[in-house]
């Protein structure tokens, strides 16, 4: 999976798991796909998987890919917590 050292690919790799978690969780609950009223556990698991992917790309010395995964992970984390704060 990690063969090219590219920032854009790193961002894409980093967004795949959180988006899949959001879609799967929306399908399981069969409600509207709004992130605001959902439990945060699946998204935190997705962030943990992103951190594992970050570790593998860092061990392969793919610095730009690692930076892209890190950027996507931090953006997703910030969005989740911002949405959770304003959902109250």
Automatic annotation (TrEMBL):
It comes from the Bacteria. The chain crosses the membrane at residues 7-28, 40-57, 69-87. Keywords: Membrane, Transmembrane, Transmembrane helix. This is Stationary phase survival protein SurE. It comes from Mucilaginibacter lutimaris.
């Amino acid at each position: 999976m990690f063969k090219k050292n590219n920032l854009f690919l790193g961002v894409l790799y980093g967004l795949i798991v959180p988006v899949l978690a959001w879609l799967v969780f929306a399908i399981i609950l069969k409600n509207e796909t709004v992130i605001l009223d959902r439990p945060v556990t699946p998204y935190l698991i997705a962030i943990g998987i992103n951190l594992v992917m970050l570790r593998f790309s860092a061990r392969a010395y793919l610095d730009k890919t690692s930076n892209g995964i890190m950027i996507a992970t931090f953006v997703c984390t910030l969005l989740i917590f911002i949405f959770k704060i304003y959902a109250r």
